[in-house]
Amino acid sequence: EVQLQQSGPELVKPGASMKISCKASGYSFTGYTMNWVKQSHGKNLEWIGLINPYNGGTSYNQKFKGKATLTVDKSSSTAYMELLSLTSEDSAVYYCARRHFDYWGQGTTLTVSS
Amino acid sequence: DIVITQDELSNPVTSGESVSISCRSSKSLLYKDGKTYLNWFLQRPGQSPQLLIYLMSTRASGVSDRFSGSGSGTDFTLEISRVKAEDVGVYYCQQLVEYPYTFGGGTKLEIK
Q: Are A22 and A5 in contact (CB under 8 A)?
């Protein structure tokens, strides 16, 4: 069974950075790209970018360049998204989703507040 | 970026009825391979989005045949027949023909 298990909710201070993990199981991790999606205000969905776990190649939404950095650890079948210089605008639920968006993680809620 | 537009439903739907949800794209989603790169998702309250339809009209694995997708290069429709209480949630369409992938603003389905 394909599963994407994300890390838990985070409360961080403005200006800080944080990293969300997405551990994949039930399929060949290196065989599928991994997408990351932001959902703010409980509705708006935005594609952040994707990473190819096989070679680490990435494609980013221009809007999130400099804000998000995507990496993987093939040894643990885990994808990561680091979010930098956080502001209140980054408060949202973040999802990982496999290549064709056929499987999604459960979401990680990020709250940026002092 | 490609802009995806979804309308709101005017009224709640009665169980057992059919409903159509529309989606429009600012650019054709028909790619040179002949495929149309549009997804439909359902996000139930408190859950992650679930893929319903890909390539405009192909049902995802395990999805009920009550859901069907159709359209042209820029105008798309998701039809739900015999609506059930479990269909409640927000429906999103998404284009994958070019980066950045973009989503519509969502259409909320409510049952009377």
A: yes
Question: Hey, how many other C-beta atoms are within 10 angstroms of the C-beta on B6?
Answer: 21
Do strands A10-12 and A108-112 pair parallel, antiparallel, or not at all (unpaired)? parallel
CB-CB neighbours of B79 under 10 Å: 13
pLDDT at B10 over 90: no
Chain B nearest CA to A105, separation (Å) = 7
What CA–CA distance (Å, rounded) separates B76 from B51? 16
Which residues of chain A are within 8 Å of residue B48 when distances are taken between CB atoms?
Answer: 95, 104-107
Percent of chain B scoring above 90 in pLDDT: 95
Antiparallel, parallel or unpaired: β A10-12 and B19-25:
unpaired
* Length of chain B measured in residues: 112
Hey, what amino acid is at A73? D
Does B90 contact A43 at a Cβ distance shorter than 8 Å? yes
